[in-house]
Amino acid sequence: LYLINELLEISKIEAGKLKLIQIEVKLPDLVKNLMLTLNQINKNSNLELRYSFDHHVPHYVLSDPIRLEEILENLLSNAMKFTLKGQVKLQIKLEKLDDNIAYINFIISDTGIGIENEMLDEIFDIFTQVEQNPSKKFKGTGLGLAITKKLVLIMNGEIKVESKVGVGSEFQVIIPFEVSDHQKKEVDPSKNLR
């Protein structure tokens, strides 16, 4: 069922049938709830799951919360799968504020098995998996990262990855968000920027 759902989703994206909604999202709450869920899944492992939210990042933005959460969950779950010990960390930072558009960087880093250099350009392809060993210690469909990249692009964002085998990986997703009127009433996120 999971595989079928992923295939249906990627087919819908490629056919241009996926429609995003734009509603006010409180980012700290979205991130906190997602991390609580993942910590419940992770509670019996030796893996530390952490996150930080930079104070420059506006709390209220307009976005599709379901798709944004899907992007973060895919990347964090992927990092957790390939990290047997150590930590997986999510950092949320403000790259820049251009008029009413906040460019927010979601950085997912891990201390996992890492990715071979020659695989870095392929990991976002459909049915591509980091582990090529026939024994397939790490299970998966090879669709998660492909879906993630397509969702990021639909949201007018960009995704990049750096990795070192045996050390870990870092994914960065930078997405532009319109700052909501609610945020403007509470605080101007540009006040503390240098």
Q: Explain this structure to me?
A:
Helices cover 32% and strands 29% of the residues. It is built from 5 helices and 7 strands, in the order H-E-H-E-E-H-E-E-H-E-E-H. Strands 1, 2, 3, 4, 5, 6 and 7 form a 7-stranded mixed sheet that branches. A hairpin with a 2-residue loop joins strand 4 and strand 5. Helix 1 packs parallel to helix 4 (144-154), helix 2 (27-42) runs parallel beside helix 3 (65-81) and helix 3 (65-81) runs antiparallel to helix 4 (144-154). The radius of gyration is 17 Å and the shape is globular.
Give the structural class. Answer: alpha+beta
Q: How much helix is in the residues? A: 25-40%
Q: What is the number of beta strands?
A: 7
Q: Helix and strand succession?
A: HEHEEHEEHEEH
Number of helices, counting only DSSP H or I runs of 4 residues or more: 5
Q: The biggest beta sheet, please?
A: 7 strands, mixed
Into which percentage range does the β-strand content fall? 25-35%
| Separation of the first and last Cα atoms | 49 Å
> What's the gyration radius in Å?
17 Å
Low-confidence stretches: none
Mean pLDDT: 85
What form results from the Cα inertia axes?
globular
Topology:
Elements: H1 2-14, E1 23-26, H2 27-42, E2 47-53, E3 60-63, H3 65-81, E4 86-98, E5 101-110, H4 144-154, E6 158-164, E7 168-179, H5 181-186
Parallel strand pairs: 2-4
Antiparallel strand pairs: 1-3, 3-7, 4-5, 5-7, 6-7
Quick overview:
The protein is an alpha+beta fold and 194 residues long. It contains five helices and seven strands; from the N terminus they run αβαββαββαββα. Strands 1, 2, 3, 4, 5, 6 and 7 form a seven-stranded mixed beta sheet that branches.
